[in-house]
Design a protein that fits this description.
By secondary structure, the chain is α+β, with helices and mostly antiparallel strands. It has three helices and 15 strands. The strands form three sheets. Strands 10-12-13-14-11-15 form a six-stranded antiparallel beta sheet, covered by helices on one side. A five-stranded antiparallel beta sheet has the order 5-6-3-8-9, with no helix packed on it. The mean pLDDT is 90.
């Protein structure tokens, strides 16, 4: 049992592909984030949404020998979470039907994608606000915290000689930007979206608190 989760940036949505070695009977999806199911490729499933605080929905496979289910969904940003997929195989003969659990992490800024840096001209046009979080932490700590918050960020420094690591992200949903600079003892965040900055700050503060690291936070709002 396996899955792939790919961001379709043009649609601000994710494509989730679940594959099994045996035919799939039912998939139960549960998440602590709001998940909007947009479509199912080839309409191989019937969807039953349940009104429940755990955000439950079941996908009942219609065909007899479907081993791959692809769906398109959009998730909410704002908190660390996960999407749990309980995949039940079709019962064959006297054998018991097997159920596998796929735990799919959803990061607080999961609709952001990493892009190449912006030019000085592009930066001048953006109404950027800034937050600086400083404290007694390493550059590696800062990189790990960024990786916990945004997809496709390495959690290990590849070049230890770089005094500043810079990452630029764009929201596939709001088309706003997020620029992060990581140094020894400081993380500087710039964005033209105040809500994104707040989510980012809250997540980094929570990660630092777990490590019992005190942060000094300074902000310049535009």
């Amino acid at each position: 049992m396996d899955y792939k989760l790919n961001l379709i940036s043009q649609q601000a949505a994710y494509e989730l592909t679940i594959t099994s070695q045996k035919a799939i009977d039912t998939i139960l999806l549960q998440s602590n984030q709001a998940v909007d199911l947009l479509s199912i490729y080839d309409n191989v499933c019937k969807v039953n949404r349940m009104e429940h605080e755990l955000n439950l929905m079941t996908l009942k496979v219609d065909s007899a020998d479907i081993k791959k289910v692809q769906l398109k969904m959009r998730t909410a940003e704002g908190q660390q979470g996960s999407l749990n997929a309980f995949v039940i195989e079709k019962k064959q003969g006297s054998d018991d039907a097997m159920c596998a659990l796929l735990e799919i992490p959803l990061k607080p800024l999961n609709l952001h994608e990493r892009i190449t840096g912006l030019s000085a001209f592009e930066l001048q046009k953006l109404p950027l606000s800034r937050i600086v979080l400083s404290g007694r932490f390493s550059q590696q700590d800062g990189l790990q915290w960024i990786s916990n918050c945004i997809p496709n960020v390495p959690n290990v420094i590849s070049d230890s000689n770089m005094s500043t690591l810079t990452f630029t992200f764009r929201s596939s949903f709001t088309k706003t930007y997020l620029i992060v600079e990581i140094e020894e003892g400081a993380v500087t965040v710039q964005s033209d979206n105040f809500s994104v900055m707040t989510i980012f700050k809250d997540q980094l503060s929570a990660d630092a608190s777990q490590r019992k690291i005190a942060l000094d936070i300074q902000s310049e709002l535009n």
